[in-house]
């Protein structure tokens, strides 16, 4: 079974600064997808960014980028120029190319201070 | 385009009653997934459906829970004889048939059991 581990229950960052959220996963598959979802206090689940394992280039979406280390099974999220609206729970998730069920980590609560 | 629509947003039931949660996928999406989020936890996969077919229900509790996605109308997650432990947020996601397309989530239904 695949497991996703987020080792930071809480993180804090000052507005305009950069923060990195960690995620590791365990799998024996070679082809899979990785995601970061954001859950603000409104409880919506919002897709932030995704990465295909067969692509070596790290995905980027505006201020959000990932550091994907396939050999280390690591998938961290970097948020640049943090904004107050970035405050939320962030969940790392995985699904294999042969599957469809998303496996989620327990989440990291991000606090953004003025 | 309307996103994934879930209703109701909040549902309160007494122990022993039935709960019915509805999910209309995004236009063009034929795959539906249900996840459950317990307090302070990440989302856990419950079931994956296509029109008129249950593809994978490995995450569903063996008793009292059922799901359907009829040819016409929304997907329904049904919980019979609810107990306090069923209190959670239930999220529906949908995706097109392409496996490499991400799942898009609804806003969830928060189920509270009195």
Architecture overview:
The complex is a heterodimer of chains A (114) and B (114). Chain A has strands spanning 3-5, 10-14, 19-21, 24-26, 32-39, 46-52, 60-61, 64-69, 74-79, 88-96, 103-104, 108-113. Chain A is mainly beta and 114 residues long. In chain A, strand 8 (64-69) and strand 9 form a beta hairpin. The relative contact order of chain A is 0.35. Chain B has strands at 5-7, 10-13, 19-24, 31-37, 43-50, 53-56, 65-68, 75-79, 88-95, 104-105, 109-113. In chain B, strands 2, 4, 5, 6, 9, 10 and 11 form a seven-stranded mixed β-sheet that branches. In chain B, strands 1-3-8-7 form a four-stranded antiparallel β-sheet, with no helix packed on it. Chain A binds chain B through residues 4, 33, 35, 37, 42-47, 50, 52, 91, 93, 97, 100-107, and chain B through 31, 33, 35, 40-45, 48, 55-56, 58-59, 89, 91, 93, 95, 99-100, 102-105, 107-108, 110.
Summarize the structure.
Chain A is mainly beta and 114 residues long. Chain A has strands at residues 3-5, 10-14, 19-21, 24-26, 32-39, 46-52, 60-61, 64-69, 74-79, 88-96, 103-104, 108-113. Chain B has no helices and eleven strands.
DSSP strand content of chain B:
over 45%
Mean pLDDT of chain A: 93
Class computed from helices, strands and strand pairing of chain B: mainly beta
The total count of helices of chain A amounts to 0
Name the beta content range of chain A. over 45%
Protein structure class of chain A: mainly beta
Question: What is the share of helical residues of chain B?
Answer: under 10%
The main β sheet of chain B shows up as: 7 strands, mixed
Task: Give the helix proportion of chain A (percent range).
Answer: under 10%
Stretches of chain B where pLDDT falls below 50 for ≥5 residues? none
> SSE order of chain B, as H and E?
EEEEEEEEEEE
| SS summary, helix count of chain B | 0
Rg measurement of chain A, Å? 14 Å
**How far apart lie the N and C ends of chain A?**
41 Å
Distance between the termini of chain B: 36 Å
């Amino acid at each position: 079974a695949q497991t996703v581990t987020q080792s930071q229950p809480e993180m804090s960052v000052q507005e305009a600064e950069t923060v990195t959220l960690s995620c590791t996963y365990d799998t024996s598959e070679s082809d899979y997808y990785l995601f970061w979802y954001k859950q603000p206090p409104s409880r919506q689940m919002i897709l932030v960014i995704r990465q295909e394992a067969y692509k070596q280039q790290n995905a980027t979406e505006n201020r959000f980028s990932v550091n994907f280390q396939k050999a280390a099974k690591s998938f961290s999220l970097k948020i640049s120029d943090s904004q107050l609206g970035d405050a939320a729970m962030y969940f790392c998730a995985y699904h294999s190319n042969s599957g469809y069920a998303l496996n989620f980590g327990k989440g990291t609560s991000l606090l953004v201070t003025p | 385009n309307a996103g994934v629509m879930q209703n109701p947003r909040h549902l309160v039931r007494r122990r022993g009653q039935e709960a019915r949660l509805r999910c209309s996928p995004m236009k063009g999406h034929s795959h539906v997934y249900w996840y459950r989020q317990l307090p302070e936890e990440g989302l856990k996969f419950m079931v994956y459906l296509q029109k008129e077919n249950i593809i994978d229900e490995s995450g569903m509790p063996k008793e009292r829970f059922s799901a359907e996605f009829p040819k016409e109308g929304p997907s329904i997650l049904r919980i019979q004889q609810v107990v306090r432990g069923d209190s959670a947020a239930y999220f529906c996601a949908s995706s097109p048939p392409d496996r490499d397309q991400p799942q898009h989530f609804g806003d969830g239904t928060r189920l509270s059991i009195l």
